[in-house]
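Researcher: Let's do a round of design. I'm pasting the structure tokens now; please hold your answer until I've finished.
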């Protein structure tokens, strides 16, 4: 569609075949208009500075630098004064302190605690010991009189490599964990010799051991 319009820079009439008519007749007029500057006052500090004519439109706030813009927004765009404010008032389940969260954070379970400190306090009370989803009856520190010997034999038998991912102790710079295929608690301290048989032991790195304990990695000894 042809449009006949007057150039906003030089005033000359021109025609263009475009769906949206341009404002200027040429690139030269476009660049000249963009280089134009007028004097304006900063809406925060009142300092005079140069700005483009397009920045003089009514209703828009303009600032001489980013610092002034930040200062103005901290005074006029905080909390409920912000036009995009959509926070919900909440009360912390631990300390009772009032705080706000967006609907998005509340939907993701972040509307119960005002801080990570309160979240940790709640978890220590409600997600430890028997209340933990990974609780399996607890672990005994004492594994029997022959545990250290059997532990060394298991590491030697497995050539000091994790039996799931294959990483070597030298690369880990620490001893491998020795995992009981049938948990030690199933035997008890009185049957430690049966629990610590090499056929019931397998060497694993810490990462694979933790994942196995959570039930995410099935594991079997190749010596059964």
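Researcher: That's everything. Go ahead.
Model: Designed sequence:
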């Amino acid at each position: 569609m042809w449009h006949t319009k007057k150039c906003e820079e030089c005033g000359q009439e021109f025609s263009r075949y475009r769906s949206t008519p341009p404002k200027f007749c040429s690139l030269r007029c476009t660049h000249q208009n963009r280089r134009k500057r007028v004097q304006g006052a900063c809406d925060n500090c009142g300092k005079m500075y140069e700005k483009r004519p397009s920045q003089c439109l009514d209703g828009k706030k303009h600032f001489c630098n980013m610092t002034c813009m930040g200062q103005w927004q901290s005074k006029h765009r905080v909390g409920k004064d912000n036009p995009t404010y959509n926070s919900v008032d909440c009360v912390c389940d631990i300390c009772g302190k009032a705080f706000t969260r967006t609907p998005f954070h509340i939907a993701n379970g972040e509307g119960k605690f005002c801080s990570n400190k309160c979240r940790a306090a709640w978890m220590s009370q409600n997600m430890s010991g028997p209340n933990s989803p990974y609780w399996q009856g607890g672990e005994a520190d004492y594994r029997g009189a022959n545990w250290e010997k059997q532990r060394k034999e298991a590491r030697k038998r497995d050539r000091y490599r994790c039996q799931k991912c294959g990483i070597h102790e030298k690369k880990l710079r620490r001893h491998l964990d020795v995992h009981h295929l049938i948990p030690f608690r199933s035997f008890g301290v009185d049957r430690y010799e049966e629990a610590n048989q090499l056929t019931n032991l397998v060497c694993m790195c810490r990462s694979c051991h933790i994942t196995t304990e959570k039930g995410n990695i099935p594991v079997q000894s190749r010596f059964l």
